[in-house]
Amino acid sequence: MGQKLDEQRIGILAALAAYMLWGVFPLYWKLLNHVPADEVLAHRIIWSLVLMFVILLALGKLQSFFKDVRTIFSSKKQLLFMLLASIFISVNWFTYIWSVANEQLVEASLGYYINPLVSVVLGMIIFKEKLTRSQSIAFFLATFGVAILAFYTGGVPIVSLALAFSFAFYGAIKKVVEFGALTSLAVETMLVTPIALIYLTMIHATISEAFYVQSLATFALLIGAGVATSVPLLLFAIAARRIPLSMIGFLQYLGPTITLFIGIFLFREPFSSVHLLAFSFIWLALAIYTFSKSKLYKRIQYSKVEKQNRPAS
To answer: Under a CB-based contact definition with an 8 Å cutoff, are residues 161 and 282 in contact?
Structure first.
């Protein structure tokens, strides 16, 4: 019992750390505003791969990793899933970096608020999952909130939808990938690293210019982009194995909430009464969605306990 509580405590702390890091990372990307978003993305990919190899080497898992890589490349299906995951996570990373550089943090936070609801719809379409009544209500409330913003701004919140859909599709693909978080993240970055390297060498005259070696501060920040990318994802993987999905579902709103507050109070981005009204519909939708997930999880756990306690016939 004590070991189980310790494991859960580790899971909660890991989840809190992951979502808090995701929430405050706009401050880090702000330090790289002088570097174009496409170049930051390229460096984020390259240095993430470097960090993945360092971690695999430190854990003594490099040999098993290359064995997994051979397995992936021998399966067209798994290779396609990895390529698609690489594309969707790259789109997500680029959109987020661009949103920070262009003072669109409020819209970025909206994207991560509606992401779980987009995931519900994808689950229904791709995996034939059925929506509960509560989830249906939550989806329509969130859609209404986004519609209010679209009507008010005179256009679709493209940043929000790009972040929400890219991460939702990424999550959907991860459900069918047959490898662990460390291996899959390393393979995803490995697949797009050659493109990132070619792109940087094409737009810069020399390698030293491409890697901003002339400015040690910028060079260090770009290396840190790999750490900023990988560490929260690994913390999330630790949490996902130790705490219930209902708890993760609740904690995941910590990140966009911190981002929203940074956008409003630190960067002074506009947040009008219309924004508040739209966000209120989305917050209400998320409350209903989280409550329904919690109830479903408790029902599943109760049926498991009941089955275990049932006397053998």
So the answer is: no
